[in-house]
């Protein structure tokens, strides 16, 4: 069978070698659009394998630091070119492994290339500032230094972009890396690491290890040779990362969930608001931390907005992401599918009104995958689970607000604060929104899920801890400042 021919076993990458785990056991990665298809096998690594990877990164620290920022940047340009050459194949693997549609997977891989080039360019940019000293005979300046070994733990929803936006700045600023990807997307991750491997990095600079989060992920967090950890994923795991890192005084950075609101005011262009809500809520099957999940509409236009929203949602085609004409793929895994269904049931039980979708798709062309319909609830109140908890699925909760103040209060009534949008043509309203909204990404007349690689990315409240990712902001996390004073 064709699907079986594609199966392959992927190994860990340690000290520039692809090696199998001491466990001699593997984990299979399944296609959520067709659970009978195995995308590949990855290593079920042991804590000894993990230790080997961290030791390799530790040993490589000095040489990599001494190579210099410009030379490190040059290597990242090579990685970018290799990723670009393999874009089609990596994007297809991503679609097979976690379900997002092929155009989205290609877009994400192209984003990965652009991020690599951005940080490659950092190789030639400044790594400090000269500061006037009060002593006229002295020279005082700052110099950015690498931290050492950085642990990188990533989720499955952006299996190319998230690892790259962590690994590329870590490397260019002179750190070595131990990368543990999400098991659900570990084959895609292995292919990304292969691009680094082919670019000819010195031994031990990037190390890749797959396996259970609670075993090797946990061990990575606790490893005494780790100098920093960057994590994107759930709050529960994030809390463990924070505790462990704080107890040892190492730097940590956490990107966690969102419950991102979109406010639609009566003066908004309703067509573009509907388009942005659909894209923000349902692209990637709602599995983005910046996905729109709460839509707060001013009363006067509530019915008109709702009607248009339903009309446009009806046009969404759900199916395998590799098929042309499919707009929304499956949930990324069985557990994700079950979570979404659980929240839909809870929404109904808690008294919200289901006005669109809310069904698992289990027959015909959908029988082999983890499909759900796009789903819309109304009459949602702030204390309901679907108003508070991150679903990570294609589910919208609609709210009505009488004015901007009520809308912003509703928008802020969550522990999260990643992204937030408003649709309005009123300058006063948008200025008020910019000031009052509790979110790290503030979007005006634009969907909540847009991100640009050259700008800081991260949230307020429970969404993020530590300095921002991406753009220049990444430098804050991946370097430490030395203030140098030289007396002539
Ligand atoms: P998760 O369970 O926290 O997993 C994230 C990563 O942590 C995976 O690599 C996982 O490995 C690993 N892990 C699991 N348990 C661990 C432990 N005890 N110690 C160390 N590492 C551990 O999250 P997920 O379910 O994969 O991802 C979905 C969540 O990520 C959502 O809640 C979403 O909001 C969040 N997310 C946030 C952002 C953001 O930028 N803010 C972006 C994307 C996703 P295994 O895969 O092997 O379990
Ligand atoms: Mg999978």
UniProtKB/TrEMBL annotation:
Keywords: Oxidoreductase. Residues 18-484 form the Aldehyde dehydrogenase domain. Belongs to the aldehyde dehydrogenase family. InterPro entries: Ald_DH/histidinol_DH, Ald_DH_C, Ald_DH_CS_CYS, Ald_DH_CS_GLU, Ald_DH_N, Aldehyde_DH_dom, AlphKGSA_gudD. Transmembrane segments: none annotated. The lineage of its organism: Bacteria, Bacillati, Bacillota, Bacilli, Bacillales. It comes from Bacillus timonensis. This is Aldehyde dehydrogenase family protein. The active site is at 255. One of its GO terms (molecular function) is oxidoreductase activity, acting on the aldehyde or oxo group of donors, NAD or NADP as acceptor.
